[in-house]
Amino acid sequence: MKISEVAKTLNLPISTIRYYEKMGIVPEHYVTRDEKNYRHYDETIIHHLQAVKTLLAVGFSIGEVRSMIERNGFTKEEHTRILQAKIEEIEEAQRKLEQSKQYLYDILASDISCEKGFGQLD
């Protein structure tokens, strides 16, 4: 497959695919080059990049994804541990956001005025 076909299939910019290659997200075995140095991708790259997109969408960083790819396989226990850790991270972020939202509601309820300037008492 040409890079444009991969990009179209996955709805990814070509520049993103090139960036993934540079970052080690696309292992070399997915890519060959022809005599004109054009990239050609194995069709299995689609499944690989779809998995990458999913991991990024649920909150894994590009570095975390690269680390997973470099490990080249996980036991079921490792897989479960990694996903559970991400769930806990998301839950902690949700708790912090909920706390921030409550602080904002408290500020609104206190009927603070900023007419004399920010942080000034009336």
Q: How many DSSP E strands?
A: 2
Element order: H for helix, E for strand = HHEEHHH
Strand ordering within the main sheet: 1-2
Distance between the termini: 68 Å
Low-confidence stretches: none
**Radius of gyration, CA atoms, in whole angstroms:** 23 Å
Sheet with most strands = 2 strands, antiparallel
Count the DSSP helices: 5
Structure description:
The chain is 61% helix and 5% strand. Strands 1-2 form a two-stranded antiparallel ribbon. The relative contact order is 0.08. With 122 residues, it is mainly α.
Short descriptors:
122 residues; mainly alpha; two-stranded antiparallel sheet; 5 helices; 5% strand
Q: Outline of this structure?
A:
This protein has 122 residues and is mainly alpha-helical.
